[in-house]
Task: inverse folding
């Protein structure tokens, strides 16, 4: 039986249709119509079994030739089409590969956190552990056990937030942590820093916030002297501000230390020559410190005849303000990226 199919005709017609195709949807339709299972060429090749031996050879050869020609033409058209579609898309402007990329907003640490972490690292090298102490305190820990009895005029130094629960307050300084750590560690020697938030019922101004960080320090042991205090704090100042910076200690008063001092560092803005940042003095006040008062040692469980210690307290935000010449402490909590992204 002869099959009435003209492969030459089919090749001519289908290949002409293919040349006109420029989109992949039409191309797929063409593939199904001309190379699919029920397309004329493939269907004709499917009938080979019904042909006589002599017919089968010539018909099969020509049929396969035609099929291959269609397949090759299809591959070429597919390539041409996808290239044409890409060019069209680019021209339509859906993607401009030459446009500069959009920069991603990158997070970073808050300037106060950066200073805190530098302080931690410096004291860690000197063997100080970090001790976390509570923000909500009792009157006793915040004042009484630190040698500040009720009605003592020294309480005027700290304007306190009282809660509705009697004697429960927000800590005005990190010093009450000294009592907690001593009671926990006694009679072991202690070398800790106590960072954290403090709260004061104050007018908010460029120089004072109602909440701010402090970093307290405490060393307790046998034979600790004022020389250890000065050596440790001078090493700290050199590590934070540079080895060339000079320091000085001025006597001061805190109820929980005896003797007490303030440590100043040479103004690193003007190298001690005098400028607006140091108010022409050449010195910047950095922290309060002193030898732990015998009463405080005793309140922590240590016998002051056997043990001694030193303590200090600093405001890392104030230090950050000095280092970066930040003029207003309110920026720290204002959450304004224009401020934050500068650090
Ligand atoms: N607690 C003091 C304050 O808030 C700072 C301070 C001064 C802490 C001297 C100390 C110290 O441990 O020895 O103003």
Result:
């Amino acid at each position: 039986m002869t099959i009435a199919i003209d492969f030459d005709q089919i090749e001519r017609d289908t290949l002409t249709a293919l040349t006109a195709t420029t989109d992949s949807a039409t191309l797929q339709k063409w593939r199904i119509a001309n190379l699919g299972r029920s397309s004329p060429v493939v269907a004709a090749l499917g009938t080979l079994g019904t042909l006589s031996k002599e017919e089968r050879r010539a018909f099969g050869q020509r049929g396969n030739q035609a099929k291959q020609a269609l397949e090759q033409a299809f591959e070429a058209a597919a390539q041409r089409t996808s290239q044409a579609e890409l060019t069209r898309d680019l021209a339509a402007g859906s993607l401009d590969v030459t446009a500069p990329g959009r920069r991603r907003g990158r997070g970073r640490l808050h300037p106060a956190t950066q200073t805190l972490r530098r302080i931690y690292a410096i004291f860690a090298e000197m063997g100080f552990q970090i001790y976390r102490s509570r923000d909500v305190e009792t009157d006793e820990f915040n004042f009484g056990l630190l040698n500040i009895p009720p009605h003592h005029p020294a309480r005027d130094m700290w304007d306190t937030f009282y809660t509705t629960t009697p004697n429960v307050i927000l800590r005005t300084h990190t010093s009450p942590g000294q009592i907690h750590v001593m009671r926990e560690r006694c009679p072991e020697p202690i070398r800790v820093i106590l960072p954290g938030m403090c709260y004061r019922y104050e007018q908010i101004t460029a120089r004072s916030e109602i909440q701010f960080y402090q970093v307290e320090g405490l060393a307790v042991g046998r034979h600790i002297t004022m020389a250890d205090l000065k050596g440790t704090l001078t090493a700290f100042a050199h590590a934070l501000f540079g080895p060339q910076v000079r320091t000085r200690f001025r006597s001061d008063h805190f109820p929980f230390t005896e003797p007490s001092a303030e440590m100043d560092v040479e103004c690193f803005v003007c190298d001690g020559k005098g400028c607006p940042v140091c108010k022409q003095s050449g010195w910047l006040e950095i922290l309060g410190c002193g030898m732990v008062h015998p009463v405080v040692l005793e309140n922590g469980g240590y016998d002051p005849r056997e043990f001694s210690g030193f303590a200090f307290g600093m405001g890392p935000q104030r230090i950050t303000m000095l280092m970066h010449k930040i003029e207003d402490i309110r920026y720290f909590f204002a959450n304004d990226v224009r401020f934050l992204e500068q650090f």
User: Anything to note?
Assistant: Residues 173, 175, 216, 254, 257, 288-290, 311-313 surround 3,4-dihydroxyphenylalanine (CB under 6 Å). The mean pLDDT is 92.
